[in-house]
Hints:
This protein is mainly β. The protein has one domain. It contains no helices and two strands. A two-stranded antiparallel sheet has the order 1-2. It is globular and about 30 Å long. The two termini are about 20 Å apart.
Amino acid sequence: MYFVAISYENSNAVILDISNRQSGIYFLKITSDKGNKVEKVVKQ
């Protein structure tokens, strides 16, 4: 499991560097004041 806490204001974009991670399928859990969302990311 890989966990990163990111806090930001006045932006709706975050760049997450996964270049050092192995190829595979990753699930990102995004939590905001509007709720939670899970996004699937495939790294080849």
